[in-house]
Specification:
Length: 206
């Protein structure tokens, strides 16, 4: 009996942590957008405090999506090919998460190592000139984060209509489009994604 109660408490804590990540991820990304704009407004967005703080928030926000993808990869009541499709979407999102996390870490390291914006630009050029770095860290693989997230929410909206509203994929799409248009719109895009994930966290079943 004690083991059963302990297991239930552990599962409850894990579920609570996962549902918190549904809001923490978008909130941290929005924070990145706000800090970035603040640094730019102050004319001090290069190596230094604003750059480091912004990218720390971004890295934390990206990593917060790991429990989101893991928590949604095996939705209750979804079986067979449908469950396989959900797992593929979650797997793609996790792969993209790893790539974006490396990108954010690289940006952080460049900010710490460079003395000024030109030195930081030179460091980025050296890193990006390494064969394979651009597609793996900056373009193709990082895109899987957004593709996986959109695919996952879309599939759940289709398979779990009782828990994921049809407008959630639309908000995710809007958020991605806003971010793709301009990093200045990153905070707005992150808020769209947060609003899209809010009802999903309430109906989380793992």
């Amino acid at each position: 009996m004690q083991n059963t109660e302990l297991t239930k408490r552990q599962e409850s804590r894990a579920a609570s942590s996962t549902t918190t990540a549904f809001l923490a991820g978008p909130a941290l990304m929005a924070g990145y957008g706000v800090v970035r704009l603040t640094g730019q407004a102050l004319g001090d967005y290069g190596p230094g405090l604003w750059w480091s703080l912004a990218h720390l928030l971004f890295l934390a926000g990206v990593l917060a999506f790991v429990p989101v993808f893991l928590g949604l990869r095996l939705p209750a009541g979804v079986r067979g090919g449908r469950r396989a499709a959900v797992r593929v979407a979650a797997g793609a999102g996790l792969l993209g998460t790893a790539a974006v996390a490396v990108q954010a870490s690289t940006d952080l390291a460049a900010g710490f190592l460079a003395a000024d914006e030109q030195a930081m630009s030179d460091l980025f050029d050296k890193v990006q000139d390494v064969p394979g770095v651009m597609p793996v860290v900056y373009t193709a693989v990082p895109a899987l984060f957004w593709i996986g997230l959109l695919a996952l929410v879309s599939l759940l909206a289709l398979f779990r209509r009782d828990e994921v509203p049809g407008w959630s994929p639309l908000l995710v799409t809007a958020g991605i489009v806003l971010m793709a248009m301009s990093l200045d719109l990153l905070a707005a895009g992150a808020l769209c994604i947060g609003a899209a994930l809010f009802p999903v966290r309430r109906g989380l079943r793992v």
